[in-house]
Specification:
This protein is of the alpha/beta class. Among the domains are: 44 residues; 44 residues; 158 residues, Trna Endonuclease, Chain: A, domain 1, CATH 3.40.1350. It is 72% helix and 8% strand. The chain has a five-stranded mixed beta sheet with strand order 3-4-5-6-7. The radius of gyration is 71 Å and the shape is elongated.
């Protein structure tokens, strides 16, 4: 086959063997060039990959170092944080322990104070119980007329006994008419006796206090007025005897509240009692009257003992006169002794002057007088 002979025709182009060989050579060259390019690219890729790997390893090494540094720093910070936390926990534990100890002490003190207060409350409750029992017994006493009278008489006797001498009063003494007042007091410089009688209109007073309307109040006032006037009349008619008792008597009311109620709301009763020579007296008023009578008795006793006092004063003046004479005698003795002491002082001074003169003399140049049978010595000769 000739080289220029077409082998095949594609469209309008006819391809010969030479064209085919040239095309094959061109295709081979292209393939070779492509293989070279691919190889070069592969080698360049391997180098780039190696570079990227090296850079990645370098980055990994840097990251590892940074991680190690971070781990070391984190470990150091963790140790510092742990130490700080331990210190803070120790401080908190100490504060909590101190606070608990102080709170425990305060709790113990509070409990002790509470126990003491409870003890005081128990004692007060016991006292209140005893007082309530005494109040109940007192209420029972005041509810009975006889025991109420004995109660009033007992208070009167206690006040008089504490304030007066036993010879100045007599309880339940019998008068000439056969009556027996609660107390008779002897007045100084008088044979008349002062009458004191205890009356306690408690029932009508309680009714007045318990009244809730005007009608009950009027009924209670009427009853109280009637009871008090009856007591006043009994004292005036039974115990006021001419020539035996004083013209004024005392009606003792054992309750301050009853006494105040009578004087505040029943002035007419007080005036009628005064006209009948009867004076109301509460415990405080009776104590004042007793103290006044005590002063009167003391004054009378001092007047009775005035001559004795005068005699003692005369004796005292005599003793003072004798004391003056003895003081004068003692003064004379002291003056005489003073003169003798002055004379002794003069003699002592004279002796002292003579001794000074003798001491001032120079006896070294004076020969002593010759003795019989003795050999005279030269002046200044050694012994």
């Amino acid at each position: 086959m000739q080289a220029d002979q077409p082998l095949f025709i594609i469209g309008r182009h006819a391809f010969t063997f030479t064209d085919v060989m040239i095309g094959a050579a061109a295709a081979g060259f292209v393939l070779l060039l492509a293989a070279v390019v691919l190889a070069f690219r592969a080698q360049a890729g391997r180098k780039a990959e190696q570079m990227r790997t090296a850079e990645l390893e370098y980055r990994l090494a840097e990251l590892s170092g940074a991680l190690q540094n971070f781990a070391a720093q984190t470990q150091g910070q963790g140790a510092n944080l742990q130490r700080t936390l331990d210190e803070r926990l120790d401080q908190v534990s100490q504060r909590v322990g101190y606070g608990l100890s102080e709170q425990s002490q305060r709790t113990v003190q509070s409990l002790n104070a509470l126990h003491e207060r409870l003890a005081v409350i128990d004692a007060a409750q016991a006292n209140l119980t005893n007082l309530s029992g005494e109040m109940l017994s007192l209420k029972d006493i005041l509810s009975n007329k006889q025991t109420r009278g004995a109660f009033g008489q007992g208070r009167m006797e206690a006040i008089i006994t504490d304030g007066l001498h036993s010879k100045a009063y007599a309880f339940q003494a019998t008068l000439s008419n056969g009556t027996r007042p609660d107390c008779l007091i002897s007045l100084p410089d008088s044979r008349l006796k002062l009458v004191i009688d205890a009356k306690f209109p408690l029932e009508s007073y309680n009714a007045l206090r318990a009244a809730t309307n005007e009608q009950e109040t009027k009924q209670a006032e009427t009853q109280l007025r009637s009871d008090v006037l009856k007591h006043v009349k009994d004292i005036a008619e039974k115990y006021m005897l001419s020539g035996e008792t004083h013209e004024t008597a005392i009606m003792f009311v054992p309750s301050e509240s009853v006494y105040a109620e009578i004087n505040e709301r029943f002035e007419d009763i007080v005036q009628r009692a005064h006209r009948m020579r009867v004076i109301f007296a509460s415990p405080n008023v009776l104590m004042l009257l007793v103290q006044t009578m005590q002063a009167i008795v003391k004054d009378a006793a001092m007047r009775e003992q005035a001559h004795v006092i005068q005699g003692e004063v005369v004796k005292l003046l005599e003793d003072v006169g004798r004391l003056g004479e003895r003081v004068s005698n003692l003064r004379r003795h002291f003056e005489q002794a003073g003169g003798d002491l002055e004379k002794l002082d003069i003699s002592t001074k004279a002796i002292t002057r003579r001794a000074e003169k003798i001491e001032s003399l120079d006896l070294s140049d004076i020969e002593p007088p010759a003795l019989a049978g003795a050999k005279p010595k030269l002046v200044g000769q050694q012994r």
